[in-house]
Amino acid sequence: MNQTLMTLGGATALVVASALTPAQADTTSILKTTFEDLEGMEANIVRFDVDKDWVTDRHIHPGHVFVYVTEGSIEIDVEGQEARTVSAGEAFQEPPDRPMVARTLSSDGASFIVFQIGPEGEPLMVAQPE
Known about the structure:
With 130 residues, the protein is mainly beta. It has a single domain, classed as Jelly Rolls, CATH 2.60.120.10. The chain contains 1 helix and 10 strands. It has one helix at residues 3-20; strands at 25-34, 41-50, 59-60, 64-71, 73-78, 84-87, 91-94, 100-104, 110-119, 126-127. The protein has a 5-stranded antiparallel β-sheet with strand order 1-2-9-4-7, covered by helices on one side. The N and C termini lie far apart (41 Å). The relative contact order is 0.26.
């Protein structure tokens, strides 16, 4: 992997981590890249390892988000939808620009992979205080 991609990926992980870590979360950037045939769009893949007390602030994602839970379980509360539990081996999709909050439900924390496609250069998430 080239050094520029690794550096950009690391920066992405820090941005995501700072927005999602009122409690403890370790992030690992897996990939950040643009598309030749989708001008102005980029993809980010980040792994999260979160503790049992992890909860996000209310926020939106400017792009489409896909999450695959690999360990534990989390609750996803998207405005306008019923809150749902997603456990290891399950995946879900979050629509863009919908306020949401996520939290760990399992006592041992959780791990999940986030894949987001969104506007190039835009933050992966934006705070949405009530």
